[in-house]
Amino acid sequence: MLRKQFPLRDGLVYLNAANVCPASLPVLDRHQHFLRDFEADPSFQNRAKFGPLRERVRVRAAQFFGVTADEIAFTRNTSEATNTIVHGLNLKAGDEVMLIEDNHPSNLDSWKNQAKRLGFSLNILPMTQLIDSAEQLAAKVEAGFTPKTKVVSLTHVTSSTGVLYPVAEICRRAREKGIWCHVDGAQSGGMLPVDLRRIGCDSYATSSHKWLMGPLEAGVLYVASYRQKEVWPSIVSVGYSEDGKGGARFLEAYGQRDDARLVALDATFEFLTMIGMASVEARIRQLTTHLMNELAKNPKVQLRTNRKEELYCGVVKADLPSVADLRAFDAKLYSDHGMAFSVTPSGPIRGIRISPHVYNSIEQMNAVAEAFRKA
Ligand SMILES: Cc1ncc(COP(=O)(O)O)c(C=O)c1O
Prior knowledge:
Blueprint: E1 13-14, H1 25-40, H2 44-47, H3 50-65, E2 72-75, H4 78-88, E3 96-100, H5 109-118, E4 121-125, H6 134-143, E5 149-155, H7 167-176, E6 180-184, H8 196-199, E7 203-207, E8 219-223, H9 259-275, H10 277-296, E9 302-303, E10 316-319, H11 326-337, E11 339-340, E12 342-344, E13 351-354, H12 362-373
Parallel strand pairs: 1-11, 3-4, 3-5, 5-6, 6-7
Antiparallel strand pairs: 2-8, 7-8, 9-10, 10-13, 12-13
Helix pairs in contact: 1-9, 3-9, 6-7, 10-12
The structure holds pyridoxal-5'-phosphate (PLP).
């Protein structure tokens, strides 16, 4: 029943949620309805409705992430949201920012670029997928804090190998030292229940078109109310106000945007709330655990994802060292079996990345394991 809520074509075994998810039909319908409405009458009079609708979405997004509407800004995606923080903080020579090597480029190269410009330094923790426990991981990050550290910018679940970071514990330790904690939630919003107050980060970024299964090119940036004064907006246009009364809205004065898409975000949160995020996480865990157990029986497979339950959730990376051309193998799985993954053809984390969501089945996990057996 759930799978029928998605426009996925018959025969497709879509396993690339970590990259982009299909929007559900209720989301698509809502977007199309409001887009048509907009185009049928772009007058100020007709568009006046979008102001209150946008605020309704903000309230729903805030409820979904356990914060207040004044702490939510809408962006195009995680990259834009994280860069708003990277470019917005007043860092200077003598300050240090701590990063993780397997952060996405939007949370790694963006900091490198800004460090060059402003003269602050970076402390980059090497890849961490082979760690023994969440506690060890938290301790490793904390060990990198120095008196100069002003920011730690983490990834909640990495896209390279699917490490689930103990972000609440790391934020707790960062907070004690007054360090700003930014969490890249591109791979956690919509995959796990995310309660930002419990996590205790200062800012969080996510994309609607990934695990949230919402419209393309919409994102959410959370900035804790007590930290908002420390962020400079990257873009200032109509609607910008520096009086502080609009909460995080001052970070989204981007000029004209697709309002219909934001309204579709409302349907996105409604849809996930209806299923319940605890059920979504449980299902994703069931699928990925089953898949890893099956793949682990295959001596040709090298799992790149940490199998300790507290250290993974929805992203599985598996290599087949005996397959020389992994890209060709990936292409064949798509053409012969309709299986769509992401592939890293070389390097230390070479492998096929498999990221299932609620529209996938155990049968599909078995089919993937079987295809790997025949490799
Ligand atoms: C961990 C992580 N952060 C950020 C991004 C960037 O997301 P977007 O392209 O939606 O900005 C991705 C995309 O794959 C990601 O995996």
